[in-house]
Structures are given as structure tokens and as C-alpha cells.
Amino acid sequence: MNHKLVATALLGAALLAGCTKPNTATPTPGTQTDFGRLQALKPGTQDTINTKLKVNIVFVGYRQTPPGQPATARQINTQDFDQRLPGSYDAVNRIPSAYGRTEKTGTSFDFDYNYVFADQGFEDDFFKFVQSTGVGAEQKRTAYQLAYNCQSGNPNIVNPACVTPAGNINREITGNFEIDALKTENWLADNGARVGVKNGEYTIYFVNWYDRPDFKFHSYTRADAADTDTGAKFGARGSRRLIAWGGSARENAPAQRVWFYDLSANPDPWTDAYDVTNSDVDGDKVADYRMPPIWEYGTRKASLGYGRKVSPDLALVARYTAINLLFTPSPIYRAALTPPDMPEKINLDVHVEQGEGATDPNRLLNSVLLQERVKVLQPFTTFSSTRKTTALDGDLADVYKCFFPVVADDICSPDYADFSGEKLFQFGVKELREEYKTTPAGTYQLPIYAFNDNQNSQAGLLGVAYDDGETGTQSFVYSFLTPDLTGDAEFPGYGFTDTTVHETGHHLSLSHPHDGYDSEQDISYGNSGEFYFVNTGDQSATIMSYNDLSRTFGQFNLDSQYRYLTAAYLNNTNAILELVRRANKAGSVSSAAQGADSKFVQAKTKYDALDYLGAAQLAHEGYRSVLNAAKSAGVPVTAYKWYENLNGLEGLSVGQGAKMRFSPTLRAQKGVVVFPEETANQRRLRLSK
After folding, report:
1. Please, which residues bridge with residue 619 across strands?
2. Burial of 558 (0-12, 13-18, 19+ CB in 10 A)
């Protein structure tokens, strides 16, 4: 026997055995808790659902800067976007956060950007489509287009006979080809696969028709948009001509998440872009940054476009309008109305306060439509509504008038931080406390006050969604009408229905699309000063905008709300499990906790796949199973009742509530602040023709 060979073989076998990993079992995912091993649930923890979100940015009609060459005024360099776009977003509950402690919503995002330059075939077909759907190039030019030609600064006093255009504009607008904005959005959504965009992905289309030989001066319209109650055709107004649109919720079709922005249209009246001469258009003595029409970029004239390049400007629009305000916004209020025991029933408790001789409220408020439109924001909740009408007189008239002080002598609550609104607030609290005495358990009363005044008692505010003044919890919805707001048969104005849907949307969490929060920079901002251009966020399919072109909540609203709800169900389940643990009842709830944990794991999968409604439904099921099990085990789970937790209103005595960070303007500020429902400049735009 060759002992040397045997020894060598044995040594080799030993070495191989030493290199082989031991046969270890794969560890079970999750964390061990009192309820067993859980993967998604974290008892007693405020958790955040983080997801990677792809955002497509598609350029149609723009050309990319060739490698090594400087970018010209109208070329796109994607480095401008890389330098300006956020890497992440962490949503906060805005009004609660303004009371001193930043309150996370529980939704955060890491962005993955995909830049696409549409090929010639796509561009040719797109511009062929818009020409086929548009209305003749010789369509009457709007007052805003004429104001641009003449640089009058005011479309209401422009001289329509202005023969010689202003010397500092780059091109005179000679026509107005009107294009249906919704049809344009749908075409882009239907043809996204041609540029590598999957159906349902968040996508911005930046459009430029100007640099093509078939260019026509044009504007986008939602011409048939009208007030629900009065029929006022807001869509026919020149002030409602658009350069952007998107976010429509398409019936019987997969979700589409498209928003387009076309600087070769109009110029935009909603951001006063027709005025390329004056830097301060809202009169607050601060320069207002806005985007001029595309043909002004690269001008050498004394114009808003002098020295400007379109690429970094579009990157600003992508970040501060599309992403922060439309795609992944922060809510204004908590979606969890009564944490941790969230309601299964919501009653819209409508109080019509009727001035003597004012328009018949039955013509101004459609309660059926109101309920139908808002219920999508709480899809697992049963809605009902009650309505009563009382006279706007006596004590009620007094507290109503206090809400609109015009001089210092009109201050009605000098000892309160909210000197004008406190009396009306206390009036509502008294009524709400009485309502809850006969309200079945588990029903949430959403108090709505519709004031139908017979006099022009205020300057034009349509509504506001109030908070409790101490914790930033939503409290009352107020809607206001006066004769000048209602209008008449010849010149109809506003009714209650659309405003009340809008304000109820706030109450149920949603923000405006023209103001919000940037989490990476920790700034609150609105359409003012350096962020004036974000007012184009209103040019999207949502009743939360101010341009009166939508009656319902759009796809971006629904996505956001269902994400908020998914996180709310997760974190309220975590809170309930902690209550169970402290009560030493974990054994009785372990089975429900395990089942719910599985639901939340499945919900995260749907969430990552952009099926936000499906995610919220699974999260709701998991939440309810744990809540029911906790209650069956005798664990008290108490719903938060803001109207019973008002320290400054104990016995409704005089006192001061917590100080909220409030800004009377929409200018950018560090941290989370509360902005006014409407500024004078926004009202000017909303009431413009």
C-alpha cells in the first residue's frame, strides 16, 4: 500500500471538510415579541413604511445637451435635475407638526429617477394628436395673451387694440389653439409604453412644441368645468387656461399617474407668467419666481427670461410642484381621526345657517353628492349624513360676524390667541358636545357649518377646515356664501357643494396642491416669492385646487390618502398591541396579532407595487382583527375625542391655547408652519375672469 498517497488523500478530505459551512437553519424573519415573532408589526412603536418610488421624467420636444458642450437656454442637461431633485421624502402631518413637535405620517420614499427623451416618432404622433383634438388656431386670444403682447401688467385693463407689441417680448402671440387637457393627459398615459414608461408609474411629461416647424400658439382647457350648484362655467374663463394637467382618476381603467407641463403654451395666467416685465406680481414687495413662456428663454431683452435656462427651471418644477405637492405630499391633518380606535362610521353633520332672504339653500348644497364624493377618502367606513337648517340670527349671527373682523374694534375674543374665530369655535364645541350625547358608539361626527348670509359681510372667503387650537387635530368645517359670491342668473358664482367637498377633504387629511413641505430641506412653502411657480400644482385633477376645474378627488389624492391610511392602520395596531401588553393580555391576542402581521406583510407588497387601495384594505383588516381581539380580552382601547380634551376650554372659560406656528403669508419658512386657507393674491386669481 502506498501510505504516502493515503495520507495525502486523508489530508485533502480533512481540508475540504474544514471549508464546508455547517448545515445551519435559515433564521425565521421578524422580531420576537410578547405576541410571538412578528415581521411587520412592532408593538409600541411609531413605524414608517418606506418604499422605493420610480419617477419617470419624459422630455417631449426638448433636446439634450450634446456631451462636452455647454447647455443652451432651451436644451436639457439631466445634471440640472440630479443636482436639484430630492433623494427621499418623509411625510409629516402638517398642522399637528406646527404645534411644536414634528409628527411623522408614517410614509417615506426613496426616489429612483428615469430620464427619457421621446423619439421623433413619438413627438410627431403626439403633436399630430394635439392638433387633431384642438380648436382652430384663430380662436380668440385671451385677455392674458393680449396682456402678454402689450405688457400691460393687468389683463383686466389691457387695451385689446394694442397694435404694436411691447418691445421687450420675444414673440407676439398671434393665435390661440385650444387643446383639451384631459384628452392630452389620457393620450400620454396610453402611449407611455412607447417611451419605456409602464402603465401606472409616476411620470412627468415636459412638453415643448415651440421648437418644431408645426408650432401653434396654444393653451389647454377644461372648458366644460362648472360649479355643481350654480352651473358657473369656470372652465370658460381665460384665467383658467392651462399649461399643465394630470392626476385624473379614470373610470374602469387602471390607475394612471401622469402630469404634463408645457411651457410653450399660453403664457400661464395662474402664475402671472404673461407679465415678463415686473418681478413682483402680487404686490408684496418680494420678487416672484415664475417660469416665462419657452420662447423667452435665451432672450437678450429686458424680460423675465433674460439669463434663464429652462433645464434648471424644469428641475425646480419637478421637485417643488410635481413630487412634493402632487406625487408624495404631506397631509394637512392626520388620516387617523380618533386614534387608536379609528371610526367605522362617519356622519356628515351639516348645519345650514340661513340668512333671511338669502338664496334657497336647497339650490346651493347637494348633500347626496357631498357624501358620495368624500366617502372615497375613507373607503372602509360607512358614511351617513344629517342636515338641519337654522336662522342666521341672534347669538349665532354675532359669533359668525366675529369671524370676519375688519377693524380692531371688531375683535371679539381679545383674551384668546384666535381673537376672531374663538367665539364661533366655542359655539360649535357646545353644539358638538350635545350631539355626542346621543351619538352611537363608534360613529364620528364630522361637523360642517354652511353659512348662507344675505349680506356681503366678508371679502370673499369660501371656506376653511379648522383645527382644535391645541394639538392640531381637525375640528370644524366652515363654508361661507354671500350674495356677491353666489352671483345671479346672469353671472352665476359659487354654491356650497364644491367648497364643502374641498374643506371636508382637508378635514380627512388632504393638503392643497399649491402649498406644502419639503422634508429634505425642512421648509414649508407656498405659491409666493421664490416659489410662486408652484401655483401650477393647481393645474391638476383635484377639487383641492383653487381653479374650480375639478369636482372630485383625483388619482394623486387617492394614492396619498390610501398610503396615509395604510400607515395609520399599522401604527394604531402597534399602539393597541402595546395597550394589550401593558394589560398583561398578550396571550389572548397573540393569534390575532399573528394573523394581522401576515396581513401587513401582504399590504407592504401591494404598497410597493403601487396598489395603495389594496394595501389599505389589507391593513384595515389586520387592524380590525387586533382591535376586536383586544376589546374581547377586556383591554380598554379609547378613541381620542378632541372636543373633550381642550385644556383651554375647560368649562369654556377664558384661556389661551397652545401656540401654533402660523404664517400669514405663503412665503417659504424653515420648519413646519400653518398657512392661511387663502391669501389676497390667491383670491384675486380665483375671482379673475
Report:
1. none
2. buried
CB 601 within 8 A of CB 40: yes
Task: Give CA–CA dist 158/173, Å, rounded.
Answer: 15
In the DSSP assignment, the letter for residue 72 is -
The distance from CA 628 to its chain's CA centroid, rounded to whole angstroms, is: 33
Name 52's Cβ contacts closer than 8 Å, sequence gap at least 6.
Answer: 109, 110, 111, 112, 608
The residue among 559, 553, 113 whose CA lies nearest residue 373 is 553
Q: Pairing state of beta strands 474-481 and 463-467?
A: antiparallel
Residues recorded for the chain:
689
Residue that has been written with the C-alpha cell 351619538 in this structure? 439
Burial class (CB in 10 A: 0-12, 13-18, 19+), 229: buried
28, 39 Cβ separation under 8 angstroms: no
DSSP string, 555-609: HHHHHHHHHHHHHHHHHHHHHHHHHHHHTT-HHHHHHHHHHHHHHHHHHHHHHHT
Contacts 24+ apart (CB under 8 A), 428-432: 428/475, 428/476, 429/643, 429/646, 429/649, 429/652, 430/652, 431/351, 432/643
Burial of 505 per CB tally in 10 Å (0-12, 13-18, 19+): buried
The CA-based angle 56-179-323, given to 5 degrees, is 25
Q: Which three cell numbers stand for residue 315?
A: 428641475
pLDDT digits (tens, 9 = 90+) for 62-106: 999 999 999 899 999 999 999 999 999 999 999 999 998 999 999
pTM of the full structure: 0.93
DSSP reduced 3-state for 74: coil
Bond into 340 cis (ω within 30): yes
Secondary structure of 153-191 as H, E, C letters: CCCCCCCCCCCCCCCCCCCCCCCCEEEEHHHHHHHHHHC
Q: Which residue's entry shows cell 389594496?
A: 614
Q: Which cell is 83 given? A: 443636482
**CA 579, CA 600: separation in Å to the nearest integer?**
19
Name beta bridge partners: 447: 349
Structural contact between residues 664 and 516, judged by C-beta atoms closer than 8 angstroms: no
Helix-, strand-, coil-residue percentages of the chain, each rounded to 5: 35, 20, 45
CB count in 10 Å sphere of residue 665 = 17
User: Taking each helix axis from N to C terminus, what angle separates 181-190 and 120-133, rounded to the nearest 10 degrees?
Assistant: 150
Using CA atoms, how far apart are residues 590 and 596, in angstroms rounded to an integer?
A: 10
For residue 410, what pLDDT band results from cuts at 50, 70 and 90?
low
| pLDDT tens readout for residues 492-547 | 999 999 999 999 999 999 999 999 999 999 999 999 999 999 999 999 999 999 99
Distance in Å from the first CA to the final CA of the chain: 107
Cell 410635481, residue located: 322
* Tens digits of residue pLDDT in 437-463: 999 999 999 999 999 999 999 999 999
Residue 626 near residue 573 (C-beta atoms within 8 A): yes
Neighbouring C-beta atoms of residue 411, cutoff 10 Å: 13
pLDDT at 12: 47
Q: Which amino acid, 446?
A: L
Contact at 8 Å (CB) between 644 and 633?
A: no
DSSP assignment of 241-307: -BSEEE----TTS----EEEEETTSS--TTTTTT--S-S-SSSSSS----PPPGGGTT--SSSTTTT
